[in-house]
Amino acid sequence: MASSVSSTSKSKLHSVIAITGATGTMGKATVEELLRKKDKVTHLKLLIRPSKKNRKLVKKWLTYTNVEVIWGDLFDIPKIKQLVFRADIVLHIGGLVSPKADYVPELTLKVNVESVKNLICAITDLNQIDTTRFVYIGSVAQYGSRAIPLHWGGPGDPMLPALYDYYALSKILAERIVAESKLKRWVSLRQSAILSKELLYKGNSPITFHVPLNGVLEWSTIEDTVSLMVAVCKIDVSEEIWGHFFDIGSGSSFRLTNYEFESMLLRALYCPPPEKVFEASWFAHRNFHGIWYWSSDHLNQLVPFRKGITAEEYFINMAKSLPTYFKLAGIIPSGIIKMFMKYVASDRHFGTLGWRKENNETLLKAFFIPGMTNNNWSQALIVPKPDTKDKNYKILDLGYDRWKPFRELSLKDMQSLAIRRGGECLSESMKDGDIKTPLTWKCSVGHVFNTSPTVVALGGHWCPECSPWPTSDMAKKDPLIHDIYMSTHNKEELND
Ligand SMILES: [Zn+2]
User: Structure pTM?
Assistant: First the structure.
């Protein structure tokens, strides 16, 4: 409907915009774009940690009279209050992200969850719950490990972090706090992996090998991401976004298998193809994350943000942007590059070869399918092409018609969803379409909890007391988790 497509490029921005995480990849690019806008923001408030590096980074911004830098961190309550005071909109981009988050799991959990609590408390204390819009940046990691034929997904699919992925767990817990808050207008935008030139300089992490070759990801370019951040700051942004969950992705041509992505990335870096510089057996089989988003096109309809460039063109531009010395990679023998990559994969703590050397049974069991020895390159090619007409995929069955309009959701739908989770919806009444009033639920092991249909049906959250990780025990009791678990596990593992 034309009426739902608002937010034209000419429409006005909110006057007071508050941003956390302004010095990270996404935050920095967002601030710079906002400062470039002709209809400038009247007041841009940024919460920034007072480090030497950050002081240097924001020097340029301080010359703008409409920029207010608040020196403090996400635990500093008075500074957080100063940040959100009279803000029309808060873009909460800050927090710890992967891969750094993988090295400091406990701190990640603390920063990412506490920051949301602190921001919402501050907005509430200042009596701004009706006036301040809150944009939470979630993550594709919240969906966890998914394999064929369940490689398409979106809001409503269960929140199921990969084992030991504390970053994903932190994003799930924090998102739930947002969705259960009393804020009048909030939205969770689940970010995918960001595609930017910076990525070309980050190829030497052992985490590269945690990514299954035949897994998928819908990439989100930094340009599209920034365009979305600016679009949600517009006064006439579609009201339909508030109170919902969406996925950020750059669309059809950016829906790549991880093998395709590696190939394109190496080509951009003037390197030989994956087969020449890696062994297929270095890559994990499961326990990462990544899906192709069926909902990102919907988000683009509601809040047009895509720049329309294809992945192919994007990689060509990335390659062009590299300094000339990168072209030297083309004359380095592939054997030398392979030796270096083997060294990277041999990292004791994070490298898959390092785990084998140390016989780290726990991690090997989590990331590799027992008995799967035919790990060769042909496996990387079995994922169906990113074409929505392709029938080799299955959208998860939530137990009710997940495509029906929200205003038609009924108690019967919620009861069916609870049964699909091996539990029950204990409430005896629900007004059709009332997705905000909490209902009472019981999980498969008998924990009773109250939360809204928005949180459970639209967000995919479930029992707050149960273990958040996908275990064989959970798969036996929760039919929905069973379907996902069995896409990446052997039958024998179900009885472990
Ligand atoms: Zn439970």
Answer: 0.94
